[in-house]
Write a structure and sequence with these properties.
161 residues; mainly alpha; 7 helices; 0% strand; globular
Length: 161
């Protein structure tokens, strides 16, 4: 990939890549860090990455970076001071956006990525398969399972009201 192709790839895919990482991580600073790391890795690997495959390469790299980030974050121990206080905020728990967001966030990382890439970013099954390095049929299966988990979660949360 040449310098001008690199710049075009960044310009064309930066917003979608940031949106994907932000939805996955739910933290803008960490999402920005991941995106910047992806850009740096793309630059370092520009000779090995074909321009036509830059989009898929960047999303794949971001996916793996987010998995690593979540593994590191899950190893951290949280003290009680970092947990949100309970109280009046619980009344807002059942607002539709929060409920859907919570349902998506309980999904395993692969299913969560597929939901975000398909339903929020609008990628095709083939593109998602390339990004996540799985077959198109696996994408369909994981998407089906993820949607079913979300439906079950939403159904269970409405029973609590």
């Amino acid at each position: 990939m040449k310098r001008d192709e690199y710049n075009i790839a960044i310009k064309n895919h930066a917003n979608a890549l940031y949106g994907y990482t932000l939805k996955f991580l739910r933290d803008s600073e960490n999402a920005q860090d991941i995106v910047q790391d992806v850009f740096e890795k793309l630059w370092l690997n520009r000779k090995a990455v074909e321009f036509e495959k830059a989009k898929s390469w960047m999303f794949t790299t971001a996916f793996h970076a987010m998995l690593n980030f979540n593994k590191k974050r899950s190893r951290m121990t949280y003290n009680s001071e970092s947990l949100p206080e309970r109280g009046s905020n619980e009344k807002n728990l059942f607002e539709s956006n929060e409920v859907v967001e919570r349902a998506v966030n309980i999904l395993p990382p692969l299913q969560k990525s597929i939901i975000l890439l398909r339903d929020l970013q609008g990628y095709s099954y083939q593109e998602i398969g390339e990004i996540l390095e799985i077959s198109e049929s696996q994408v369909k299966v994981y998407l089906f399972r993820a949607r079913n988990k979300i439906k079950k979660q939403l159904k269970d949360s409405t029973k609590l009201v």
